[in-house]
Amino acid sequence: MAAYFGLVDSEMRRKMELLSRFFPFPKQSFFLFGPRGTGKSTWLEASLPDALFVDLLKPAIHRRLDARPEKLAEMVAGSASRTVVVDEVQRIPELLTVVHDLIEHDRARRFILTGSSARKLRRGGVDLLAGRALRKTLHPFMAAELPAFDLQAALVHGLLPLVVADPEPAAVLDAYASLYLDEEVKVEGWVRNVGHFARFLEAVSFSHAAVLNASNVARECEVERKTVAGYLEVLEDLLLCFRLPVFTKRARRRMAAHPKLYLFDAGVYRSLRPRGPLDRAEEIDGCAFEGLVAQHLRAWIAYSGSDCKLYYWRTRSGVEVDFVVYGGDGFWALEVKNTAGVRPQDLRALRSFREDYPECAPIFLYRGQERLLIDGIPCLPGEEFLRGLVPSRGLMETR
C-alpha cells in the first residue's frame, strides 16, 4: 500500500500490518473485502506463507490474466498449494468464472479473493460465485489487537494499519482521499464529475455520527438529491461509510425514520472534516469518539460470527441512544459521551430506552477514568471498554 502514497515502506509499518488480527479464517473459500489500507495483502501473505498468491496489482500478472483469464487454471494446476489467494480480484472480474469452475471440480481447494470493493464485480454482471464463497470483511485495527492503544491518537489518526504504522500519519491520511478519487472513482468512472464528488466527500463529513439528511447534503454540494444518493452508494460500495438503521422492534413510541451515517474510520473522518475558527474542537472530538466506538462494534460483530446487528434508537421527540446491539447473543444499549464526568442528564436516553426494553443491558461510555454504577447503569471509561472488546467475549466481559 505504501507505493500508492509514494512513501517509503518501513520495517515498522510491515511489523504493524503483521500484528495478530481477530479475523477468523473460514475453512471454505471466501471473499475478503476491506477498504484500502486495512492490510489485507500483507497480513494474508504472512498468515498463509504456503499459499499460491496471484497479485493482480503486478502489471505482468495483470496483463497475462486479463488477456487470457483461463491461465489462472493452469497456474492453480501447477501449484501444490491447497489455498489460492487472488489479490484485488475486482481488477479482472472475468476470473470469477474460472474460480467458480475450479471450486466445482475441487471442493478441497480454498480460494481467498480479496478486493477493496464488490462494486466492479457486480457491475460486471458476475454472481460472486453464486454463494459458493463466503463474504468477509477486514476492518481497521481494534484496540485489543494493538500492543499499545492510545485513545487520543486513535481519535486523531484512526486505526487503519497503513496509518497507525507510519511515522507521519497525518500525511498518509491527507493522501488517502486522493487515492480513492484517483485510483477508484476517477479511473473506474464511478461518477461523472469528480469535482462534485470531492465536494460531496467534504460535505458528507458533517453528517458523520449524525442522522443523514441527503437533501441538506445536496444543497451544500449544489447538486440534485438523486446525485447525492448515487454518491452515497459509491461510498458504501467502496466500504468507506455505513448507515445504521433505527431500532424499531416492539416500538412503544413514534420512532425516527432516517438512518445515521458513519465514515468507516475516525481518522478518515478527521481528514475529510473541514475545520475553521467557528468549529469547536470538542464537537469534532465527540463525533470521532462516537465513530470510533461504532467501528469497533462493527468489527466485534463481524469477527465474533454473532447474529447481532447494529442499530441506533431515536424517537420522533429527539430522545436518542447512540447504539443498540441486538441478536441471539445479547441485547445492549450504548450511549457515548465525550465528557470527563457523568451528569444526570447524560443517562436520560438510556433510562428511557430501559423503560421500553427492560431486557437490555445499558452501557454508558465516557472519557473519564473511573468505573461507576449510577441507577443500575455501568458507566465505563471509553478507552478501557475499547481495550477489553474482544470478539470471543461479550460486550461487558473484560480480559
What does this structure look like?
It is built from 17 helices and 14 strands. It is an alpha/beta fold. The strands form three sheets. A six-stranded mixed beta sheet has the order 9-10-11-12-14-13, sandwiched between helices. Helix 8 crosses helix 14 (266-272) and helix 11 (194-204) packs across helix 12.
Write out key terms for the chains shown.
single chain, 2 domains, 399 residues, globular, 6-stranded mixed sheet, alpha/beta, 5-stranded parallel sheet, Rossmann fold
Write the layout of secondary structure elements.
Blueprint: H1 2-5, H2 11-17, E1 30-33, H3 40-47, E2 52-55, H4 59-67, H5 71-77, E3 83-87, H6 95-105, E4 110-115, H7 119-123, E5 134-137, H8 151-157, H9 161-164, H10 169-188, H11 194-204, E6 210-211, H12 214-221, H13 225-237, E7 241-244, E8 260-263, H14 266-272, H15 281-304, E9 309-314, E10 320-327, E11 330-336, H16 348-356, E12 361-366, E13 372-374, E14 377-381, H17 382-387
Question: How would you concisely characterize the structure shown here?
Answer:
By secondary structure, the protein is an alpha/beta fold. Helices cover 40% and strands 17% of the residues.
Anisotropy-based shape: globular
The class by helix and strand makeup works out as alpha/beta
The chain-level mean pLDDT equals: 89
The tally of domains stands at 2
Please give the share of residues in helix. Answer: 40-55%
Low-confidence stretches: 1-9
What's the total helix number? 17
Main beta-sheet annotation: 6 strands, mixed
Give the CA-CA distance, first to last residue.
33 Å
Physical arrangement of strands within the biggest beta sheet: 9-10-11-12-14-13
What is the CA-atom radius of gyration, in angstroms?
22 Å
* Content of β-strand: 15-25%
Per DSSP E runs of 2 or more residues, the count of β-strands stands at 14
